[in-house]
Amino acid sequence: MRLLIIEDEEPLAKTLTKGLNEEGYAVDWAAAGEEGLHFAQNYEFDAIVLDLMLPEIDGAEILRRLRAEGKQTPVLVLTARDSLDDKVECFRLGTDDYLTKPFAFAELLARLRALIRRSHGVTGNSLTIEDLHIDLDARSVRRAGEPVQLTATEYSLLEYLALNRGRVITRTELAEHLWSHDWEKMSNVLDVHIANLRRKIDRGHERRLVTTSRGSGYLIPA
């Protein structure tokens, strides 16, 4: 999953990036409003963490412009502003969640996971596709009741395919959502990760769940 952090406090942004990377997320960081708006308008993200008090363009204006353009990327406003008026205004502009500083990283992570799940129509913390069970919080996988040991990259691939089950996902889209702004350099190893994922998920099972749509991309059935 790929996240965008728009935050001008560098120590906080670096701490968030490190923590989210450790949880398996690819993260892009913008330190000013114009750069953040450019990223959000021109690249696809699974969620955006947005500060309000930013140089150049404030967070509320970024939110207003994105929603006016039809961008429905989930947004979590992360700010020191804790007044009711600020919260109401941001929800009016289209934010999906609002968290005030100081905050606990565990709460931020839980809120982001919930936003991403809901954006894919998933309300619980797990996914079941035929005999494949994915615990989205524990990042664990079982097939026919047996645990499947995946690397962090393999799990991220599986999670993205499963959340978008029934839809063909192109190689470019997969790479973009796994490796942030360096995805073009990493896309050549995508086939290796897909092959390893297939071997671990489908080996020993008559029914294959990770399939290829020839010339288009990859698919997990709905």
What count of domains describes the coordinates? Answer: 2
Question: How do the strands of the widest beta sheet line up side by side?
Answer: 2-1-3-4-5
Average predicted local confidence, pLDDT = 91
Silhouette: elongated
Instruction: Bin the strand percentage.
Output: 15-25%
Helix-strand category: alpha/beta
Structure description:
This protein has nine helices and eleven strands. It is an alpha/beta fold and 222 residues long. It has two domains: 2-120, Rossmann fold (3-Layer(aba) Sandwich), CATH 3.40.50.2300; 126-219, Orthogonal Bundle (Arc Repressor Mutant, subunit A), CATH 1.10.10. The strands form three sheets. Strands 2-1-3-4-5 form a five-stranded parallel sheet, sandwiched between helices. The longest helix has 15 residues, at 105-119.
Task: From the structure above, extract its key features.
11 strands, 4-stranded antiparallel beta sheet, Rossmann fold, 5-stranded parallel beta sheet, alpha/beta, Arc Repressor Mutant, subunit A, 222 residues
Strands, helices and their partners?
Elements: E1 2-6, H1 10-22, E2 26-30, H2 33-42, E3 47-50, H3 59-68, E4 75-79, H4 84-93, E5 97-100, H5 105-119, E6 126-129, E7 132-135, E8 140-143, E9 146-148, H6 152-163, H7 171-179, H8 183-186, H9 190-202, E10 211-213, E11 217-219
Parallel strand pairs: 1-2, 1-3, 3-4, 4-5
Antiparallel strand pairs: 6-7, 7-8, 8-9, 10-11
Helix pairs in contact: 2-3, 6-9
What can be said about this structure in brief?
The protein is of the alpha/beta class. It has helices at 10-22, 33-42, 59-68, 84-93, 105-119, 152-163, 171-179, 183-186, 190-202; strands at 2-6, 26-30, 47-50, 75-79, 97-100, 126-129, 132-135, 140-143, 146-148, 211-213, 217-219.
